[in-house]
């Protein structure tokens, strides 16, 4: 009989491939009719041992368990979804037993972990660098101060040249170098043109204009929306005529530019300008500067002639009736014209009337005049209004616009209190002012910025500035928690009238009381007069 030829697709054990050949031949194992997945993973076909193209190798296939596992790991790192076949391959490898029927188990390949070392600068090097900087700084600073008369004019002169001027100068020098090296006539012409143009622009900037410039703004305090005009006056002080001159005047965030005509000796030219006042704030006007240079802008030299002035744009206010609130009888208060029968400031004697307190009968004067006379006093009262403004935009409906409304309401209350000859303390963001006049108080409101603020801290500052306050008002928005408002106003004394003025364009205007606080709700500035007319602060 002929010995059967062994099939090319017959399988061999992995141990037969990796280990030494056995000493005695053994019969090949019987193949099961239905091989399990473990056998499929632990056996290798003979055909797979042959050299195959790269695209057909099992390690490059997507069905390989290790490859699928590695791909799923990277996809999980990158935040991508894992494929179904990768999930099945991982599940198959995880559930495979360590050894089945004495066969070796194929291990799943793991991705290598790469750890990049952190680049650290040696401490000795950083300390040495710091010491060198300290030593050189201590030595260079005195030298720089002694040589300042030399290098300061040089740096000022270099600052005249604009980036365009430096570009033209560099182009001329490079063209000159190339023309002299390669004898290019065209480059020589370009070099001459650039250098001559640069020198001509420098010559136009050199010189000192003998002028006198005056600027003023009238008025210096306006309300939002009111017109404000300014005037700039230039006078030629030189003995000869002056060429046209460019004058720049910064106004807030912008700048006004005036091209003055030619002026004869001693002549004056005047220009008017308008200052925008649409927003509350402080607008800085000036300083006025003259610009000397060329029309192309290669060289620009400026000189300042005036000081900087400020234009205060006050918040809008509304006229209020006398508050009639916060008047506490105090023996150490100020004397008022109101007469009283029980106070400290003696005023006069008058005849006894039924109901008068007999303790105030002046017996010696009564015996002298033959009728009962009683003492009459003048009231001494203490009245101090403390106003705190919450400038946090997030607590208002409408944010910045609602914050401006809150500042307008606080300014109206402060002005009315000052007109009533009461002491007034205002805390608005970073501005604090106490016992001042109405214009200066409104200046503080104009300087106040809009931004997050600590209400508890601001109210504490107001309580420290006004320990004798008789009424405290916190202007805030509807989104501020009530417990925070209550805790903030609780820093004032018990006898102080505590009021929370809430700005809410969606709520109903009214007055209510809660937890010892008087809560006033307004939607617009005109509503403030209505809620105060009801005597809410009494």
Automatic annotation (TrEMBL):
Residues 83-94 have a biased composition (Basic and acidic residues). The chain crosses the membrane at residues 157-178, 184-206. The keyword Ribosomal protein does not apply. InterPro entries: DUF58. Keywords: Membrane, Transmembrane, Transmembrane helix. Coiled coil: none annotated. Pfam families: DUF58. Residues 1-107 are annotated as: Disordered. Residues 19-35 have a biased composition (Pro residues). Residues 349-434 form the DUF58 domain. PANTHER family: SLR1927 PROTEIN, SLR1927 PROTEIN-RELATED. This is DUF58 domain-containing protein. It comes from Knoellia sinensis KCTC 19936.
